[in-house]
Amino acid sequence: MSRPPLHLAVEIDGEGAHPAAWRRADHAPDRLLTPRRVAGVAAVAENAGFTLLTLDDGVLPPGAPPDPVGRIGAVERAAFIAASTSTIGIAPVVPVTYAEPFHVSSQLASLDHVSAGRGGWVVTEEDHPGAARAWGRPPVTDSRARAAETRDAVEVVRALWDSWEDDAVIRSVATSRYLDRDRLHYVDFTGESYAVRGPAIVPRPPQGQLVVLGRPHLVPASQLDVALVAGRDVRAVTAAAAAAGTPRVFAEVEVALDTPAASGAERVADLERHAPWTDRGRLRHVGSAERLVALLHDLRGAVDGVRLHPLVLDEDLSVLSRLVLPALAERRLVARPLPGTSLRSALGLARPANRFAAAAAQEDAR
Fold first, then answer.
1. pLDDT at residue 293 above 50?
2. Paired sense of beta strands 189-190 and 248-257, if any
3. Helix 35-48 and helix 74-84, axial crossing angle in degrees, nearest 10
4. Which stretch of DSSP H or E encloses residue 244?
5. Distance from the Cα of residue 168 to its chain's centroid
6. How far is the CA of 158 from the CAs of 27, 178, 363, in angstroms?
7. How far apart are CA 234 and CA 214, in angstroms?
8. Chain segment 159-169, per-residue pLDDT in tens
9. How far apart (Å, rounded) are the C-alpha atoms in residues 360 and 270?
10. Which residues 6+ apart lie within 8 Å of 228 measured at CB?
11. Rg of the chain over CA atoms, in angstroms?
12. What are the backbone angles phi and psi of residue 210, rounded to the nearest 5°?
């Protein structure tokens, strides 16, 4: 029996996965934080056939001088990308350690509306004391306390997405009614550090629930649609994927590909003169496009998808577009999203029923 094709995601924050990637970018530094740059990279990823792009973020600026130390918020970039693309999924990173889950829910629901159902959410936490100062909040230094904050925040966000039933907006001219108030619900959440009553201020997202991605050791598997798993070799990735316990699993893979101008190893060595490429425990491929295709073939079946972290976007994304994805498509190893489909549909995930409507239906059936 043939194995299902892989879904490919790509991280496009900044200039690439290496902190000194800006030194090999093919544009002037002042273009990094421009709309044209964001839209251009997203267009390349979409035209190449990626299922999903992600945008890293955090309340503190990335890097340290002399490397770039600024970025535009991921949700804002995602909304801009949504208006200039039509098929690719868009998942910003939104940490929840100090952020208000009510606002996170509204932002992400709005993204799903703007993108016509292509929104996702990469859940992370803030572990740097400076993040607490930026938010004006007491620091959450204990890992268990941060995990509790993350768990509660995801539960609140998901409940708020359901606080409007799908048919809550009626727009009745005859009765001058815009909403059916009986189809709006209080979430009445009480956690360890806060309580949220609701309902949301944004109608239910087109997907019902956006696709939620995260690392299983940070977010309970029951709250994730896609686990992002790491490992320094295929065996470790396979083991992590088997233990994830989520509907879908994506492997994290860093890539430094051979280009016409220099090999992947030469490019890494050039950047290592300025700063080290941080070891995050991920599978790392340095070499040819053909070997990357073989690696992804080996991962197929162990995982449902792969999130690629290019060394330098301007160099590696071109090779991925010209050589890697076409080779995978020719061998039917990769899934390409279809126009008009939601991100959930592209990943083979069902649209979830509204928890409040389902509970009412069960009560009526008794």
1. yes
2. unpaired
3. 60
4. helix 234-244
5. 28
6. 40, 24, 22
7. 20
8. 999 999 999 98
9. 62
10. 122, 213, 214, 215, 250, 252, 307
11. 21
12. -60, 160
Q: How many residues does the chain have?
A: 366
Q: pLDDT tens for residues 57-101?
A: 998 888 777 887 788 999 999 999 999 999 999 999 999 999 999
Question: Distance between CA 18 and CA 97 in Å, rounded?
Answer: 26
Structure tokens, 156: 């609140």
User: Residues 156, 196: contact at Cβ < 8 Å?
Assistant: yes
Burial class (CB in 10 A: 0-12, 13-18, 19+), 330: exposed
pLDDT at 361 over 80: no
Query: Closest by alpha carbon to 20, among 75, 62, 56, 78?
Result: 62
Residue of 33, 54, 26 lying closest to 42 (CA atoms): 54
CA-wise closest residue to 170 among 185, 181, 159, 161: 181
Both structure tokens of 180: 């059916």
Q: How far apart are the first and last CA of the chain?
A: 44
Spell out the residues 6+ positions from residue 267 whose beta carbon is closer than 8 angstroms to its own.
24, 256, 259, 311, 312, 315
Amino acid at 271: L
What does the block give as tokens for 114?
A: 């703007």
366 falls in which pLDDT band (50, 70, 90)? low
- Evaluate whether 289 touches 258 at the Cβ level (below 8 Å): yes
Q: What is the pTM of this model?
A: 0.95
Residue 2 pLDDT: 62
pLDDT at position 1 is 45
Whether 360 has a pLDDT exceeding 80, the answer reads no
The closest alpha carbon to 203, from 172, 170, 231, 242, belongs to: 170
Give the separation between CA 336 and CA 88, rounded to whole angstroms.
9
* Burial class for 111, CB neighbours closer than 10 Å (0-12, 13-18, 19+): buried
Cα–Cα distance, 223 to 256 (Å, whole number): 32
Of 58, 69, 78, the residue nearest 131 (C-alpha): 58
pLDDT tens-place string over residues 4-61: 899 999 999 999 999 999 999 999 888 888 989 999 999 999 999 999 999 999 988 8
186 pLDDT exceeds 80? Answer: yes
